[in-house]
Amino acid sequence: MFDFVKWFFMIEILGWIVFPLAFSIFKKFKDRGYSISKTLALLLTGYIFWIGNTFSFIGNDNYGVIFSILVVVIVSTYAALKNGLGEILTWIRENSKIVLFYEVVFLFGFLSWSFVRATNPAVLGTEKPMEQAFIMGIMRSPAFPPADPWLSGYSISYYYFGYLIVVIFMHVAGTSSGIAFNLAISLWFALIITTASGITFNLINYGVGDRKESTLIKPMLLSLLTPIFILIISNAEGFLEVLHSTGFLWKSDGNGGLVSGFWRWLDIQELTQPPGLSLDWTPSRLGGTWWWRASRVLQDYTAGGVSREIIDEFPFFSFFLADFHPHLISIPFGLFILYISLYLLQNLKIENWKISGIIGFIFSDVGILSALSVGGLIIINTWDFPIYFGIVLMVILYPRIKVFGWKKERIIEIIRLAVTFGIICISLYFPFLIGLSSQAGGFLPSLIFQTRTVHYLVMFFPLITPIILGLAVMLKKKGFIGFARTFGIISLITFMLYGSIIISLFVLNKIPEISDSITNFLGIYQTQSVNSLLKDTVYRFLNTFPLKILLILFIAVLITLLFPKKDHKEREKVENRNIYSQVFVYILVLFAVVLSLIPEIFYLRDQFGWRMNTIFKFYYQIWILFSITASFYVINMFRNQKKENRIIFWFSAVALITGLFYPFFTLRERMRNIDIGRLSLDGNQYIAAEEKEAIEFLIDSDYGFVSEAIGGSYSSYGRISKLSGLPTVLGWPGHELQWRGGTGEIGSREADIEILYSSGNWERTKEIITQYDIRYIYLGDLERNSYLVHHEKFLDNLPIIFNNSKVTIFLAENE
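Above: the chain sequence. Below: its structure as tokens.
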């Protein structure tokens, strides 16, 4: 509990330090940046700490953190003096309810998810060990770029900024990695609440500066719908689990078994199997964890009918699972960029803005902050960078397109802004890119890998329903002029793109010189010939045709709403900033729908070979964008009490209820048998006493490389480096392969470590110790169980620096 208090006061102090800067930049927002001040504080402090260590201006220690905070203090103090401290104090006094509101919801979020983590705190299973290894690896790194804890001699080849922020808290608060891991997840939960709420509060509350403060209570409360949509609402698979567990649409086959055409047609793994004998409303499953399936709704099939797992996580699943992964870490920072984007759309001056205007924007305070935050996604979760880069470009250029129309000058402006802004974003984080390897192997056509409409709807039904209804109301108001033409053009472009891929493949197959490449290409889809692949592609395209039409309809509607023909000369309407709330929502939905359509055409090839990661990364951002827009439309329907809107509101509410089954039953299952007296945030409490004693010894020892047993991913291997922060020769080989896109750096490490432990040849053992610069040789139960350890050679040649009933550590320095 004491660690929680230290973390809470630290983030509070950082937030208040940064608030004058946020106040200075977001002058025209009602909350003056207070809702995002904590997220901004982490971004700024983390960046200064990272860049300072990267160029060796500061050290990876408490003094380095203090220096970073002092730099932020100086910048924020300058902003406070520039605006006048009195103005800031006056705002705080007059808007105390806004301040109190965000402090209460932040504390509630931090406390509530800390409690959830305390019921199951162990940093075990899935990829939690990997994330803890990164945290401790960064914590112990003597210099930056931080050392890879699972590949000694190399730096981390992964987006690690979120873990670096955790290390900042650990330095100051002195928190152990097990506790820090769980507090970090809970802190991020709270940050998402305030940042998401801040977006919607300003989205629905623009231009209310003259209202009395009491009138803001309702908008503040309504703004909480957005974090609820992001963090709590889940996909409809949980609702299906409940129906399945009741035996819905299952019937006897006459032989004592159950059959169902509906569940077989739905084709969600495990739900195709009959439910258990005790039919009730509580989801359960023999031989598995029922809640896992919600993150694997979609399936791809090879030409041979082999299922390929597709990841389609959503935030509640991520927090419940508690993998502190970059896709989760990036959420508050992505939301912060959307907060900036909304501000730019509503407030950026566009009159007479040519090249000088672009330069002026880039070097303005909001421009610099935009580049710092958008570029930050490169080191936080690289997949998100092009998405939010595109959103920022669109909100900047949209007003000019509306006012001055589509001309050659607009194309030039887009190119100039994209190139200039992109160069600055990348330059700010270029040192990270130098050491980053990638498993990306270019783009491949999806062909037979297509998403079924029903699976897409199961994934997004709770969110997409209010969006469809809200857009329908707006389209009805605006009229259908231009919609049919837009729909036709987009359909033609999309289908021509599909057709060009098929024709290109057919033509390439006729070229003998690339026959080997074609053979490898066919192997991805598990088919023997191009003709067979093309036939299957056409069949599956037609089978998933409704989803393509739905997405194209979406795009056509949004373009019609964004660029209605009737309004192209009505500048006074464009300059009314209140309409930009609707425009902002249209832009978010447009990006979400385009992200939905892209994996139906192309996907990024990686070590897996199919769409798993492309769907995963895109759908996660789609969930964020859909959540903001769905909450906006529900709030509008709630506030507008017309009969038509009331009907739509209740229809949307019913759809949203389907997204509450999953969080209700998962939390109910976890809380059912909790023992309040055993609650803990220590994720390391599962460690055996003997091994814990050895790890604490290594934490207090000088920095150096350690040898330990090597084994597969998602296992206990790599545990010593994970917990001590000392790099091991090799941790999880499969993950290193993914991070680096090949085995070149891994080499023969796994075989060499087996020789180190098993061989009786001391000279060969010395060679391995020297080759990998091993300082500590760890010998515990896992090493003894993994290898036929030749114990005597170590006893005869190396000093023992630690020993208990389970663990022996030898010092191999200077060998």
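Residues 612-639 form the longest helix (28 residues).
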